[in-house]
Known about the structure:
By secondary structure, the chain is α/β, with parallel strands linked by helices.
Amino acid sequence: MTRRAITVENLSKLYRIGERSASSLRDAVAGWFTRNGGDPAKGEFWALRDVSFDVGEGETLGIIGGNGAGKSTLLKILSRITKPTKGSAEIRGRVGSLLEVGTGFHNELTGRENIYLNGAVLGMRRAEIERKFDEIVAFSEIEEFLDTPVKHYSSGMYMRLAFSVAAHLEPEILIVDEVLAVGDVNFQKKCLGKMRDVGRSGRTVLFVSHDMAAVSRICDRAIVLSHGRVAAEGPAGEAIREYLSGASSALRAERIFEDSHPQPASEVVRLKRVRIVDQSGAVCARFDIRNEIGIEATYEVIKPGHVLLPNFQIYNQERVHIFTIQDVVSEWSDRPKERGEFTSTAWIPGNLMAEGSFTVNAAVVTYLPRMTVHFNALDAVSFDVFDPMTGDTARGHFAGTMEGVVRPIVKWETLNKR
């Protein structure tokens, strides 16, 4: 049986909202007025509540969840930065933490001096630090600025050196928060590769990230935190799917306009409903990147005799306009519609969209005899696309961050010319 490196039992952390100590004359005066004018509303906030789990030696554990889920609080307790309100966390081994840029650095000391300082904090002898010194500097890529006080470093330089120190001074347990997002893409890849190597060497890694591809790539197992509690736990892939499934509940895959005031309409046509549907026609907010995505609009033609084209504009979470689709191929694409209710569905093919969240504007337009936009319902519906990491998508077996607003599988030809 694998020995446990970390044992967490019923860990809880309570913060009292609005409570502070009077550390200055100003605070004391403010407190006096507050007491005489009535106490401000105070409340209790449980950042963590009854969290329990074990981490085996040599295991790489991912900790995922939305903002405010309790991830950073958990790591601060495990790093002995803050104390729990209840419960216990037993750690067996030397811990190296990187919870924010420059954790453990002294601003007035140079990069060289901070390497020795961090090593001493980790309990390492000077000979051990010197043995790793050149490797740390080479990895961090800041040799030119090694004898400059770190207060003059950029956030990226800070992070490079801090991560390099934490990863190379051989702690038994390495704890890394989302701080890697500070670095550039190439250095992020180096860091992920290093953490994977640390795990393979038998040391334990706790990794917090919003990058599900990175978690899937380097973690054996993952824990999902939600509102301070463990919502799911298991193999990394399963935990990620559980987390994304819960996150998609905030998406709006169907919107009915019958009761809205005013309805998206003109004197010619009125929008009644927009839905995101799967291949079976069921409303769906979350799609495997390999599957078709249906965008369906139901509208009522009030005034017949117009060529009416449903039109959908798709945006990603950065509000980049990905593309616009409209009906130019069906029997109604150049044929006037009579009075009545119509439902039009556009199908986005599988292996076209990239991962992420998307919103849809729904419009009906006429081009002949002149251009007319009858209505355009902004942010009508939304949906999410995920990559199952099965190796048969456009990313293949690569689990790192892939840039781009679309991700099609295209035809390739490779010739071996001898």
